[in-house]
Amino acid sequence: MTRRRRIAHLDMDAFFASVELLSFPELKGKPVVVGGRSTEPPKMDESGVRHYARLRDYVGRGVITTSTYEARALGVFSGMGLMKSAALAPDAILLPANFEAYRHYSRLFKTAVATIAPQIEDRGIDEIYIDLTDLDQDTDRLALRIKQAVRDATGLSCSIGISPNKLLSKICSDLDKPDGVTILDHAELSTRIWPLPAKKINGIGPKANEKLAGLGIHTIGDLASAEPQMLIAHFGRATGHWLHQAAHGIDERPVVTSSEPKSLSRETTFERDLHVSQDRARLSSVFTELCNRLSEDLLRKGYATKTIGIKVKYADFQVLTRDLTLTAPVYEGGAIRRAATECLRRIPLDQKIRLLGVRAGSLMPIASIAQDTQSYQPDLPF
User: Fold this and answer.
1) In this structure, what are the phi and psi dihedrals at residue 134, rounded to the nearest 5 degrees?
2) I need a labelling partner for 376 at 20 to 30 A (CA). Which of 201, 263, 337, 351 fits?
3) Nearest Cα residue to 65 out of 293, 358, 362
4) Predicted local confidence at residue 377, as pLDDT
5) Annotated active-site residue in 70, 127, 289, 342
6) Is 165 helix (H, G, I), strand (E, B) or coil?
7) Banded model confidence at residue 272, pLDDT cuts 50, 70, 90
8) Is 271 considered catalytic here?
9) What is the pLDDT of residue 37?
10) How many CA atoms lie within 13 A of 114 on its CB side?
11) How far is CA 187 from CA 163, 193, 199, 348, in A?
């Protein structure tokens, strides 16, 4: 008899910020932001009182690595510029990132989970998929055992979604945060998943979500009701078919326990072709955003990169790429941008640009590199 698939997605709750609160427990319940390359660590005065930097005092181009749920309630989320975020939460406490600590706690929670359920797909520094299909224990008890093992090993909480596949479990792990468990049967799709916004499906980004909204599709249920041929007409055959399948909770991907990604990339196609001189500010802004989002992807998946590449598609659809191999691995947005800028210098920019992309190759786990590697990256000119 074939067992019904049980796939779990485990997501650590505000992971980087939660790790910081282990060192600074007095900050629990307060809006805390982690990020900014130049952020000063807390200072302790002679009376033993710690003094923290505030978001309003930050000057620079850094972005938020993560934030506590109290900061998120104020509209401050990962990937936002720190100076922009200061307008929303000026009094939020600002801490520098400590990636050595994050890697340490990442190893701890994954090791703890493996003692109960060894079929794990590592999706980054703070999330994993777990195949529970062949385990005998009841689903709810397994989830609680895993959560307790994570807490015992790290002192941190996690949220778990369990369903018949990875797509639905990824959605479910975000429904009851923090410290939640959501178990979903496929028969509950219409009542629990279809009312959610379409963007809750992992893979529907801001642009696709905006395009769906323009078609009158706002919820996953709306998407499920849409004619497949209409989706194909607007998004192409592959994407249109995937959107239809995803809305109906169909995902046959297995939990993969051994593969490593070879590269990660971010790219964008402009609504109109941009001129390098006339649209310089727009191109520069998009270029910076792509580099920062690529940095977020690397951090989320737990990788650093030694090869940065760029992709430019001109208005006539000609495509040029250039790569640069660095002397030391990087993962921070500013370092990626410097390397990508060097690549751009080797491409003629005398035509209008239709698409711009940034790629990270030669990936290696962040856990395998020294904490201070970032300090030794080449200082590339802009």
Assistant:
1) -90, 5
2) 263
3) 293
4) 35
5) 127
6) coil
7) confident
8) no
9) 67
10) 10
11) 11, 10, 21, 55
